[in-house]
Specification:
The radius of gyration is 39 Å and the shape is elongated. The model has no long low-confidence stretch (mean pLDDT about 85). Helix content is about 50%, strand content about 0%. By secondary structure, it is mainly alpha-helical.
């Protein structure tokens, strides 16, 4: 079902035709171009400066994320526990009803 697709090479690596002989062209002297202006070096990327305010903001944001994720996980665990307890109570009630019905006969 899941088979990887291997890409095919669209161009051939083998030369199909014979190389054509190229005749040398006459060299014509031209006007010499002026030298290019020196390129200014690219400034390095600015470094991130961590001030006390940004550090406090990062710590506060991280704490908020941890609290939110923790609350979601705890609520999910609580939902599973409540569902399991209600299923167990339903099973006990049904078993009790079945046993009471069996004793009457």
């Amino acid at each position: 079902m899941l088979r990887p697709k291997i890409p095919t090479n669209p161009t051939s690596t083998v030369q199909a035709s014979r190389p054509v002989a190229i005749e040398p062209a006459a060299v014509v002297p031209s006007v010499q171009a002026p030298p290019a202006a020196p390129v200014a070096p690219v400034p390095p990327r600015p470094t991130v400066q961590l001030t006390p305010g940004t550090a406090l903001a990062l710590v506060g944001g991280g704490t908020a994320v941890v609290l939110v994720v923790g609350a979601v996980l705890v609520s999910m665990l609580l939902a599973v526990a409540i569902t399991g307890a209600s299923v167990a109570v339903c099973a006990l009630v049904i078993r009790s009803l079945v046993n009471a019905d069996a004793k009457r006969r």
